[in-house]
Amino acid sequence: MRVRVNGEEREIAAASVQALLAELDYEGTHFAIAVNYDVVPKSEWAARSLSSGDEIEIITPRQGG
Amino acid sequence: MLTFYSKQFSSRLLIGTALYPSPAIMQTAIRASGAQIVTVSLRREAAGGKSGDAFWSLIRELGVTVLPNTAGCRSVREAVTTAKLARELFGTSWIKLEVIADNDTLQPDVVGLVEAATILIKDGFEVFPYCTEDFSVATRLVDAGCKVVMPWAAPIGSARGIINRDALRLLRDRLPDITLVVDAGIGAPSHAAHALELGYDAVLLNTAVAKAKDPVAMAGAFRLGVEAGRVAFEAGLMDARDFASPSTPVVGTPFWHAVS
Question: Do B49 and A5 touch (CB under 8 A)?
Fold first, then answer.
């Protein structure tokens, strides 16, 4: 299905947030994730299913002022 | 002691983590500044990436309190979601709330800011709003539940120091129980001292240290500037005058004669 990950259109097979991280080869551990502007707590990544057209943001800590 | 939402700190300097020549210099400069609170941001992680982990471990090593920001957010919705992501990521209810109205001046969108602050405070956040020096805006933020207000000195990264001293002084006079921080536009330790001399509780800065020729030495200079400004405020500054007033006694001046 087609979703948008960090602003980019992608065709994915993953059906959950957890599976999406694995499919895209994310290796880090410090992420926060929002689907359609709703934050998905880490404890719900495996259970949170994805749908076609979802907008997913995968966020990490960065330098800031 | 300085209080931010029931947490106490001895340092009155809050410092950013961006724009340093290297991660090692960032760490050394932050330690030299004496700051106990650092600002961080949230950004997208590229597929396959783990750069966030590397940065986060540098910050953890410093043992400081983290204040995440919503830098770059241009709408209430973006800012509120970013704040919630920050709470999830950093495990803190603190948020430096920025809603930006204009790319050239990075002027805060004060209407959106009040709206976002209201939503976040109802959701349990402790909000540090980055705002202008406008008194009515500061009042709205306080009414919404902000215990901290952070007006700019000048536009972010401009290094111009305090442009509107009278307005900042008014905020201090009218909001005696609010923790006030001058955030943005500080370019020199003297600017930071000026903010503290006006009775501001702290300053927040980044570029002035990170972009100095020697960021570590400059961090130390800011630490001293902030301390000097605070001690001066507590000591009580004299009032300014329009005309000269001799410091050396006039009576007894050689060759002096009283005017008849």
Answer: no
Note the pTM of the prediction, 2 decimals: 0.94
Number of helices and strands in chain B (H, E)? 9, 10
Q: How many CB atoms lie within 10 A of CB B198?
A: 19
How does strand B126-131 pair with strand B94-97? parallel
Q: Is B122 a catalytic residue?
A: no
Closest chain B residue to the Cα of A62, Cα to Cα? B41
In the three-class reduction of DSSP (H, G, I as helix; E, B as strand; rest coil), residue B258 is classed as: coil
B47 and A59: CB-CB below 8 Å? no
Q: How confident is the model at residue A29 (pLDDT cuts 50, 70, 90)?
A: confident
ipTM, two decimals = 0.94
Residues of B in contact with A6 (CB under 8 A): 44-47
pLDDT per position as a tens digit, B22-31: 999 999 999 9
Q: Catalytic residue among B7, B50, B96, B213, which? A: B96
Interface contact B88-A39, CB threshold 8 A: yes
Percent of chain B with pLDDT over 70: 99
